[in-house]
Each structure stands twice: as C-alpha cells, then as structure tokens.
From TrEMBL:
Subcellular location: Cytoplasm
GO cellular component labels: cytoplasm
Residues of the full protein shown: 424 to 748 of 748
Biological processes, Gene Ontology terms: phosphoenolpyruvate-dependent sugar phosphotransferase system
A single GO molecular function term of this UniProt record: phosphoenolpyruvate-protein phosphotransferase activity
Official protein name in the record: phosphoenolpyruvate--protein phosphotransferase
Length: 325
C-alpha cells in the first residue's frame, strides 16, 4: 500500500483550492527516525520522550538522554523535531515514580503536573535537551498544560536551565522555541496572553476529545460513541484555530485523528495548517488532501451547522467519495 503513495512522497499536500498543509510525523524511538525520509514527513511534530523512562526500572541518566536526543537531531538533519517533555501518569506509570492510588488517573497527577511538582526530573530532562541541541535549533513542548500559569512556570524552568548551562560554560542551542500541547478544554479558554506567549501550540486530540466528551479514550464502549467530526467538537476546534490566528501563533494537531484522511480533510477545512501523525498515515492523508477543495468542505460543514445535523461525517463522506480515485 505504501508503494501507492511513493509517487507523491516528495510532493506537497496541496489541496485543489491551493492550500498547502504541512504533514509531520509522530515519533518516540530512534527506530522511528528512518521514516522521516521514507514517509515524506516535513519534520517530527511530536517526539514522545516518555518511552526512555518507561522501559527502565530506574530513572534514566541525563547523559543517556542527552546522547539519545542528539542522535535524534542528527538523524533529522534540517528537519524540525518537537520534543515533548515527559508525559507520564494516567496510562503511562513509572514503576520508580508512582502516584498514590488515584481514583481517576486520567484526571490525576500526570504530565506537567508531575514535572512542576517534582522539578528535579524536569530540570534533568531540560538540561539533557539543551546539551543535545547545542548550536542547533531546539523545539520543546510541554504536555497537558491546563492553565496559563503552568505554562509560565514550565517556561521559567527552561529559563533557569539555560542560565545554569550558561554559567557552566556549555554551548546553548542556536535557537529555542517553547510551546505547549492543548489537550484540556480549559486551555482553549485561557487568557489571550497565553496564546500570544506560547511560541507554538499543538492540539493533543486524543486527550482533548476524551475531556471534551467526558469519554475515556481507553474505554472502547464509550470511545466510539462520540464523533470527532461532530459539529460540537469541530466548532470547539475552530475556536482554537481562530484564537491562534488572532495571536499569530502556529498551531498543529498531533492526536491520532490527524492521521485519518477524512478527519484530516475536515481539520484543513476549519483552518488547521499542520498535522502530525504516525508515518504510515502521511501517504493516505496526503492522497486525500490533494483531492479535496476546502471551500466545498467548508460549505458542507456550514450547512450542517444550519440544518442541525449532529456530525458532518455523512455529507463529507459523500463529497469525498465523489473525488476519491
Ligand atoms: C494526545 O493526547 O492527542 C497526544 C498526542 O498525546 P498522547 O496520545 O501521548 O497522550
Ligand atoms: Mg495527550
């Protein structure tokens, strides 16, 4: 099936109406990096750093992490890599750093909450990233930020880490970019200052959808009950897109839905311009995007708003069938 897409591997994901969507890949292992070339991804939109913490029964050393991050940057060449700081808790529990029993782990002590409460681990990781990216560009993204103050506190940790490195005489990255994942509904309604302050944002659709519909992403029974293409969720995403446009803040979408061609086409229609997905999805998503007219999709979505349709999926599918080859 991948052969089918090889002809357009180096072609842009440009729609019929002339809009180009940036397609990036999600990664988490050194073994994922060869896909950067083979998939035609423009960069790594999400590098999940938790695996190196999960596969051990003790905290990895800073030097090990730094060496790995350096290899990731080496393998990526000129392509941008967005490193997401440690996202543990909920479904990803470290044996050596367990929260006390939590009745609702998905709503519990996880991700940036752990990072800010136990800053030692976050500082170690930030230092490893700074050292790995000495003289190069570094993009760091904080997971599960639920309010502006958490972003401010995390950014302050990064600034402290930079000061420390400077004092130690270590070379710093040539350019540093700090962003956040938008994966709790609260952050979509943060003060505009947050949207202006963040250098980039990425929608973590897996978590965002779970919290939007109050439906556990791990629970098959409820997970499929709510459509990503429902008018309610699309309107919510549209609001985020608009806030980022007003602030001039680059926005991407890196949850699993970005890798589904029908969903990806609708995301493009509501204004998302960068999607990050597993490498195998890039071909099919590009194939779809190159066949659609976003103006038609926007009109279909608008009509659903007016007619009281719950989801845009059926009419969108009808249109996509007419353009699919
Ligand atoms: C997400 O929540 O959509 C996301 C990309 O992060 P993860 O799946 O690792 O929680
Ligand atoms: Mg998430």
């Amino acid at each position: 099936a991948q052969e089918r897409y090889s002809a357009t591997r180096n072609a842009p994901a440009t729609t019929l109406c002339g809009t180009t969507i940036g397609l990036q890949m999600n990664a988490g292992l050194m073994a994922d990096l060869p896909s950067l070339e083979s998939s035609g991804a423009e960069g790594v939109g999400l590098f999940r750093t938790e695996l190196q913490f999960l596969i051990r029964n003790q905290m990895p050393r800073r030097s090990e992490l730094s060496a790995l991050y350096k290899r990731v940057l080496d393998a990526s060449g000129d392509k941008r890599v967005v490193f997401r700081t440690l996202d543990i808790g909920s479904d990803k529990v470290l044996t050596y750093m367990k929260p006390n029993d939590e009745p609702n782990p998905a709503l519990g002590w996880r991700a940036i909450r752990v990072g800010l409460d136990k800053p030692g681990v976050m500082r170690m990781q930030l230092q490893a990233l700074l050292r790995a990216a000495a003289g190069r560009n570094l993009s760091v993204m904080f997971p599960f930020v639920a309010q502006y103050s958490e972003y401010i506190a995390a950014k302050a940790e990064m600034n402290k880490a930079m000061d420390r490195e400077r004092k130690l005489g270590h070379p710093l990255p040539a350019k540093l970019e700090i962003g956040a994942m938008l994966e709790t509904p609260s952050l979509a309604f943060a003060p505009q200052a947050f949207f202006e302050d963040a250098e980039f944002l990425s929608i973590g659709g897996n978590d965002l959808k779970q919290f939007f519909f109050a439906a556990d992403r791990e629970n098959e029974r409820v997970r499929r009950r709510y459509d990503t293409l429902s008018i309610s969720f699309l309107s919510f995403l549209q609001g985020i897109v608009t806030r980022c446009e007003v602030a001039g803040t680059p926005l991407s979408f890196c949850g699993e839905d970005a890798g589904r061609p029908v969903e990806a086409a609708c995301f493009a229609a509501i204004g998302l311009r960068t999607l990050s997905m597993r490498p195998a999805s890039i071909g099919p998503v590009k194939h779809m995007l190159r066949r659609v007219d976003l103006n038609v999709l926007r009109k279909i979505i608008e009509e659903c708003h007016d007619s009281g349709e719950q989801s845009v999926r059926a009419p969108v599918m009808e249109y996509l069938k007419s353009v699919a080859r």
